[in-house]
Automatic annotation (TrEMBL):
SUPFAM superfamilies: Homeodomain-like. It is found in: Nucleus. The gene is RvY_04255-1. InterPro entries: CenT-Element_Derived (IPR050863), Homeodomain-like_sf (IPR009057), HTH_CenpB_DNA-bd_dom (IPR006600). This is HTH CENPB-type domain-containing protein. Residues 113-184 form the HTH CENPB-type domain. Its main location: nucleus. GO terms for cellular component: nucleus. It holds the Pfam family HTH_Tnp_Tc5. Keywords: DNA-binding. GO terms for molecular function: DNA binding.
Length: 238
């Protein structure tokens, strides 16, 4: 008579298959696999101990899930996948197979143990603010924390979005999700055209200064008065 090993918290005992409430045919492979799970032996029989995986207390990381799906089922058979990944549960791998595309799309060495996909309340406003940010950066205009918030508020007003405040916490979440950080802009060479500056000093500046007395004309480089100057910081993806 075939037996299936069963483990309780106090003892290990053999349970006759024919004593089950439902008479379910048990293949020799299932009996062997169940016995291996009960004894903790390696399916390959090399003497090493298999660590139980796929349980609530020992969840697979996202990177481990992606690597398992790279093996199964295209390269090796299921049993070899279980051995290579130290996983006892076939259902764990079967569940991963149903979400193959989602996990294989993850980048290498991704952190975490699960993917959370939920729709946020103000996704439309975030998308609009990020589109404006991308357009400004492409044109060479700096974008600040406040600029991002005001753009979202403007879109919310145009769309009659209720209960949107554009709080600091919301903007911080947008920056975190889009990997944006405040960076200091350094150097003028990339954004300056010397010829345009020389033409402006020669042609435009004298016309502007005609309305002012010499006592009211200051050199901004010496006084530090940067009226209407562009910001020195901007939000960039890093």
């Amino acid at each position: 008579m075939e037996y299936i090993s069963r483990i309780s918290s106090k003892r290990r005992e053999a349970l006759p298959v024919d004593l089950c409430i439902r008479q379910i045919p048990v293949s020799s492979e299932l009996v062997l696999l169940t016995a291996e799970m009960a004894s903790g032996s390696n399916p390959a029989g090399n003497g090493s101990t298999v660590v139980a995986r796929g349980r609530t207390g020992d969840r697979l990381t996202l990177d481990e899930k992606r690597k398992i799906l790279e093996l199964y089922p295209s390269q090796v058979i299921l049993r070899e996948v279980m051995e290579k990944s130290n996983i006892r549960s076939r259902s764990t791998i079967a569940k991963l197979g149903k979400q193959r595309e989602k996990y294989l799309a993850l980048p290498a060495n991704v952190r975490g143990k699960s993917i959370v996909s939920r729709k946020r309340k103000f996704d439309v406003l975030e998308e609009a603010a990020m589109k404006n940010h991308g357009d400004c950066i492409q044109k060479g205009f700096p974008v600040s924390f406040t600029d991002l918030k005001e753009e979202a508020r403007l879109v919310a007003t145009n769309l009659n979005t209720e209960n949107f405040k554009g709080s600091q916490g919301w903007v911080s979440g947008v920056l975190r999700r889009n990997q944006l950080q405040t960076v200091v802009l350094q150097g003028e060479e990339a954004g300056s055209d010397p010829k345009v500056a020389e033409d402006w000093i020669r042609d435009k500046l004298p016309e502007i200064l005609q309305e002012y007395k010499n006592a009211d004309i200051f050199n901004c480089d010496e006084t530090g008065s940067y009226c209407r100057s562009t910001p020195r910081k901007t939000l960039l993806k890093v």
